[in-house]
Design a protein that fits this description.
Length: 268
């Protein structure tokens, strides 16, 4: 059907597949019924060629295209499963969801290090975005190794440099959370749209250490990084006439001092 819209009607097609792993699984079930010899991980021997034939049809032709969004089930959370790997080679970008990230209460539960995109290139995005993305991934990879040390001996046993890197990585992970508009009723949090440039600037500030003094909890489910900054309540200004009026009232009352009334007025 997607090919019909592209080839004969001249349309650009957005094609959703839920889920692509089921295609591999169906081929495996048919192979078992036909008693064919299985290959790696028990899948049919023709798995790679079947995936290639399927994905080679989901391409652009001339000025018309098929853009495909595929959901891929990962059996036993094993990203190296042969059925998953046969699909992964044909994806330009992959967003990997993680149960561990979900257990930490971070939504969307994206495994940042396992996710990636061919568009993350200096030929596609600007140099600042590209450099910040690489630096952020380097920090998260370092923090992943530090996680094992922290789980054994605690964060206090880290060196000063490692402790700073570890704390920045936690702020960075929290900053990657976002409230979705479609989940407002479930979460009770209003949805937020964040511009790409604001995300890049926020990550750059965290990596640079601009927010080292701010608690990591302030970075959860915010929009721009400026929302993590503490809000200062300016003191209300009271005119001399108002203060003088309170002084006269206190002297008439006889039980509240003028200084006490002034203090109360300033707080109010």
């Amino acid at each position: 059907m997607a090919e019909e819209f592209r080839d004969n009607l001249g349309k650009n097609v957005l094609f959703f597949i839920d889920n692509m792993y089921r295609f591999a699984q169906a081929g495996n079930e048919l192979a078992m019924l036909m008693n064919t010899i299985p290959s790696e991980d028990g899948y049919q021997a023709t798995l790679s060629s079947e995936m290639a034939e399927m994905h080679e049809r989901l391409v652009s032709r001339g000025s018309d295209s098929i853009t495909t969004v595929e959901a891929v089930y990962v059996p036993a959370d094993d990203i190296l499963d042969q059925g998953v790997q046969a699909i992964y080679d044909y994806l330009d970008s992959g967003i990997v969801l993680s149960r561990n990230v979900y257990r930490e209460g971070k939504l969307p539960a994206v495994d940042i290090l396992a996710s990636g995109s061919s568009a993350l290139s200096s030929e596609v995005i600007d140099f600042t975005h590209y450099g910040v993305a690489l630096e952020a991934k380097t920090l998260l990879k370092k923090a992943e190794s530090l996680d094992r040390i922290v789980s054994l001996v605690g964060e206090s046993e880290l060196s000063l440099d490692d402790k700073i890197s570890y704390q920045r990585s936690r702020k960075l992970r929290n900053f990657m959370t976002q409230s979705f508009f479609v989940a407002e009723k479930q979460t009770g949090r209003p949805g937020k749209y964040v511009e790409r440039k604001d995300t890049v600037l926020g990550v750059q500030g965290i990596l640079r250490g601009d927010y080292d003094e701010i608690s990591e909890d302030h970075f959860m489910f915010i929009g721009g990084v400026e929302e993590a900054l503490p809000v200062k309540n300016p003191q209300s200004k009271i005119s001399p006439v108002s203060i003088q009026k309170h002084r006269r009232s206190s002297s008439n009352a006889g039980f509240v001092s003028s200084s006490g009334m002034e203090t109360t007025s300033v707080k109010a």
